[in-house]
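Demo today. Your pick:
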Amino acid sequence: MACLGHAPIAVFLLAVVFSCAPTLADLRGDLRDFVAIAPRRRIGYIAARYYIFDPRFRQAVGFVRSDEFLETWQSVRAAPDVAALIDYLNEYGSGYDVTSLVDSLPQRLRAYQLSRTVPVEMMLHRDLTTFLREAVQTLPRAKVYALMSQKVRQGGDFAKFYKALRDKQFKILVDRARNSADLQAPLKKLHEKHINVDEILQILFEIINWGPQNL
């Protein structure tokens, strides 16, 4: 289970919230600064424990690693309301296509040699969402706030992107995409694989709210 030490799912969550890993050097550096203060060893331990004991978590991870996930994701990104949301993020994220993070996620997870041997089958009700919440709880919130505040004061691409995430227009676009008729089928597929999009969105907005309120 040491192969999960870098906790790719949790790091992916941080990437989406903080900077979407843009190609500009300063914004990419911002992301590295946030990842550097995350307790990755602790998150890796949590991920390993979930993978051993929680069938729903294993199923969610297996689905994200599959071609079926890519097909579902293509359906999501093709929806007009999602395209509008992506355009908004691209505009305030220095033109970087944020969807490339999700595009590359299955391949990144496939690179981790996840054990298929499960010594104990405990039918727990934990899943990807509860793992993300537990992982987020390990983050040093005070340090995250301080780093976000510092980067907002400094201005630059991160400050621009963070302000866009805090803007009410972002929430409007997210809500519109979430309730789009085009997304009902792919969202149902994700739900069947124990990936609760509503809960994940709530976690994202909670982390965004960790930062400075007065911009």
Summary: Residues 1-8, 15-25, 118-123 have pLDDT under 50 and may be disordered. DSSP finds 13 helices and no strands in the chain. Residues 92 and 160 are 6 Å apart (CA to CA). Residues 9-204 form one domain.
